[in-house]
């Protein structure tokens, strides 16, 4: 079809569509027929300029138009600008099995704070739980054990899976998942490497005191402890490949996606540079992030969003974004917790959204990186039972948060009243 003929079709469509306002049913059918006969590349070009509301209305014209408008390619541009749509910074789609149109709809609920709060589990003894989410399976640490639960999004209950990981003589402080292993760190100073495919475990005498943090990628393990050291291991080593004296309690570690370096976050009590980047090969400090940290401004969580984008939070009540390509002395963005609470944990959607967990009243906050103020907040524990959010994880439609005595789920698929 020639370019001139294509644009004559578009002219016919736009001209005829104007008659719809005058109640011309025949004109509407004719417009739809001509419009759907356009080549797909022309249709994509036209739909590229429509917003979410216009696309939804256009999908109601006829069945063929509905099928075309519901394609992921039509919604991709809009999804890139939404919160937690599954399209991350480099264009990768991390939820390819969920239609983009549905994710854009759910993203509006994330933005406006429309959700339902369910309590999935309760326990009596106050604990320091930790979470990991792997598809439809949620892993939860309670005291010295780690349990696996199958998620049924249409039910308020968790289904226990026979998988159970134990072996620590004290509480599990942290654990991470890889494709083949679950690696846990305990208050007994040990690191346990559990196989997820076979009933095998390897115990490492990690540190002389509790292991506060842990990260692992492709066989590399980095641990940090109350004994003021960080250590590097492999999945098969029985002793550390190297030990770094930190001269301060190590609260958090994160391995870069390139695996060439890792970041440590310390308590900022003895050494006033709590954020440092280390070279994996030489175990030498290559960079210190930030300056003029106050005493006690410890870093409690570190998240790599890309090889050059890093997010941190901690006792000084700020979420900070660091760009490792720029000057390390100053962060590129920061967001302050408005109630002066420490921030225990963070997670990002890889694009525009940050979720943070505060130290009081089980407060979860949703942040839009394009704004300076908190977008939404949810209080998950009562005033009489104030608890930090020890850990949170989210999928495209649900956020899971662990407090001292319960596991909560926020379901963003529907539009109930605000939770406050």
UniProtKB/TrEMBL annotation:
GO terms for cellular component: SCF ubiquitin ligase complex
Keywords of this entry: WD repeat
GO biological process: SCF-dependent proteasomal ubiquitin-dependent protein catabolic process
Family matches, as PROSITE patterns: FBOX, WD_REPEATS_2
Pfam family, one: F-box-like
Keyword Phosphoprotein on entry: no
WD repeats: 204-243
Domain F-box positions: 32-78
SMART domains registered for this protein in UniProt: FBOX, WD40
Domain of life: Eukaryota
Protein name per UniProt: F-box domain-containing protein
UniProt organism field: Poecilia mexicana
Lineage: Eukaryota, Metazoa, Chordata, Craniata, Vertebrata
